[in-house]
Write a structure and sequence with these properties.
Largest sheet: 9 strands, antiparallel
Number of domains: 1
Strand content: over 45%
Number of strands: 9
CATH architecture: Beta Barrel
Radius of gyration: 17 Å
Number of helices: 1
CATH topology: Porin
Oligomer: single chain
Shape: globular
Distance between the termini: 35 Å
CATH class: Mainly Beta
Helix content: under 10%
Length: 181
Amino acid sequence: MKKLLVAIIITICTFSFANAQVSFSHAVGAKYFLATNSDLDYSAVGILYSPRLNVVELGDNSTVSIGTHIGLAFQGNSRDGSSSFVYDLPIVAEYNFGSTSNRDNDESFGFYVGGGYSIHNSSDFYEAISGPVVGGGVRFMIVEKPIDINFSYLISTRTLVGNRSIDQSILGIGVQYTLGF
């Protein structure tokens, strides 16, 4: 899976540099993370930073991008009063359409969908959760400012919690502001 993702990224980047279509975009906001396994009482709220490199323009209203949606949070544990640092580090390829898909786009509504590979960790877990991630979002203008509501789903993987191994998936829901538009 990792080799295939690297090969896809290299192919897209090579193609895009040959056609000089590369542009940069980024957004900041907040994200809520929730464990989807009912055995765990796990959630965290944190900041979100989403840089992306648009590597291929598919017309005036759409692009293909390589990027990340980095999440950093502190999670409190109500059972014992402890807190822990949480990070979420995905690498994704996404199809962007409409609003903020590229700098020249002036649409008021848009969306994006994509997938890749992610690592998510908290001190609640004895090892990081990693695996395929899918995600997407909608972009729209509020008072001429580009806002993005997004989701991500880190697909179930095995992880150690305490002394047991469980299937664990992480759902993320966020909102962010695209900078520079």
